[in-house]
Each structure stands twice: as structure tokens, then as C-alpha cells.
Amino acid sequence: HERVLLQGALGSGKTILFRALAGLWTTGExxxxxPERGRVHYLPTHAYVPPGLLADAICxxxxxxxxxxxxxxxxxxxxxxxxxxxxxxxSDRWDQLLSSGERQCIAFARVLLERPDWLVTxxxxxxxxxxxxxxxIALLKGPLADVxxxxxxxxGERRNTPQFPVIPVDDRPRRxxxxxxxxxxxxRVEIILTAR
Length: 196
What we know:
The protein has 196 residues and is of the alpha/beta class. It is built from 7 helices and 11 strands. The radius of gyration is 17 Å and the shape is globular.
């Protein structure tokens, strides 16, 4: 597995890069080659947790039957939200009831359920409190150790995951650099994630 952090200051275009990788930003030029759909999970700074049944919100966009309620409850327990396991069949505005850290933990529970080949994050640990961060990092080093990660952020991930090589993102033109399976060109973004 390859794990790399693209690190940049506020305003350096990190979120635009994240959106481009996810296919949500179409302005600009360059080439982005990604593994087939379904093998990459995108984790933004603010996790989306839709209203409705809690099991549906956790499994979004998949139906809960794809994983089963015991696996969903186990994923909640793993991210420190085991107390919500009894509410899987409850319907509510989870986007309003849960704190931003809890919503981000739900997003990591989705990752546990989906087991993607790649995880692309945009400052995904930033919303977590220190205990939640430690729990998620333990998951990344344990059950999710085989997931490749392209982290995009300001370096907060670096403090907690020192095994991530860092590629600085700035506005100076530079030659293409090759780091593992990632290629990047800052003046015209070119990123290639190869299939494993």
C-alpha cells in the first residue's frame, strides 16, 4: 500500500485538487488517472451524513443490506460510536444531531464497511478530537492497513501518521516528481493512482 500526504498552506488549492480527483471540479487542465469506480473512497473535510435512518446514513450511498446490521454496529464500535448501535433503525436529522467529529467518525465507519483499495482524504482528521484521531489512526494502521491513502491537507495528518511521505504543494513550477505510484506536476496537475 502507498500512503502519501500532499501538504499545502491555506489557499494553495488542496480542496480544488481533492474535488478534481473526485471528478467534481472540471475547470483546468491536466490528467488524472484513477482506479475504476468503487475502488476509491473520498473523504472530505466535512462528512456528509444524510437525514433518515441511521443505518442508511452510515452506509450511504449503499443500502444497509449490503453490509448487514451486525457489521454496521461493529464499524460504529470501532470508531467509538458504539452507543449509536441501538439507534440503527431510528430516523432523524443525523447531520444536525451529531457533532462534526461524530459525523467524521461515521465517514470512517463507511470506510471500514466498504474496504476500498484507495482512500483520498481532504484534511479528514481535522474535525476529530484527540481521542477520535487516535482511534481512527489505529484503524488505518490495523484493519485498514492495506488501504492506499492519498491525504491532502495542511500537515495535521503528518503529526499523527509519520509514515506518510510528504509532497509539498506550492505555486512554484517544478519538474514532475515520481513518488511510489503517485506522479504530480504542480503547474498542471497530473496524478496517477495505479491499481493494486
